[in-house]
Amino acid sequence: MAAPARGTGTSEKVLRLLALHGYWQNEHSFRERTGALRKNLKNRAEIVMVSAPLCIPEPEGGGQREDPRGWWFSDPGKSGFNAMDETKSCAGLEESLDTVAKAFSELGPFDGILGYSQGAAFAAMLCALKQQGDPRFQFNFAILVAGFKSRAHEHAHFYKEPITVPSLHVFGDTDRVIPGDMSQDLAAHFIDPVLLTHPGGHYIPVCAAQKKVYFPFLDSFRK
Predict the structure, then answer these.
(1) 202 among known catalytic residues
(2) Is residue 175 annotated as part of the catalytic site, yes or no?
(3) Is residue 211 part of a domain?
(4) Which of 175, 183, 189, 198 is catalytic?
(5) Angle formed by the axes of helices 118-131 and 93-107, to 10°?
(6) In the 8-state DSSP scheme, what is residue 85?
(7) Does residue 6 lie in a domain region?
(8) Domain CATH code at residue 206
(9) 169 counts as catalytic
(10) pLDDT tens digits, residue range 28-71?
(11) Which residues contact 13 (CB under 8 A, 6 or more apart)?
(12) What is the domain count for the chain?
């Protein structure tokens, strides 16, 4: 969990974003997958990565990726996760909250959070906690890419009240991992969410069309 150097050489504020990776990733693999995004935002935002605390066990037959992590398990018995699971219980969320609280304390302050897939769903929970007055999580906005609403019954309290944290929701028309309607369902819990769709699948898009939305959204917090 290492913080990159702060941006310098500009008179405008460089925002600091805490990045929350997707399931089966970690801070290092997520850094590799966000190279284009970090390059395009380098004059606007510094992105700090953090790994989730939950280690995903090796599947039967091997084929394990290097140190895969997750933010919570929807199937505690098997230490597994599926965004489609409707469960009465899950595991690991408190450990993840502690990990992110530590990141805010040791690596912060942060202007915003950037979440991808399960990390975006988790980031939405952080938005709810911030709104509820949790002092551990102080930030101004969230960018949620391929996010979704957790279907775990014990997470229902995160969605009881409309979330006022400014948010940008990014999702692909052909995403088969997290279909667009799941991301729209999450966005519906936010007040005045900014929606950005793209024709691709389950990834963070950084083409000219997306930059026309990313840049103004981030610039509104650099004043």
Answers:
(1) yes
(2) yes
(3) yes
(4) 175
(5) 70
(6) -
(7) no
(8) 3.40.50.1820
(9) no
(10) 999 999 999 999 999 999 999 999 999 998 766 555 568 899 99
(11) 222, 223
(12) 1
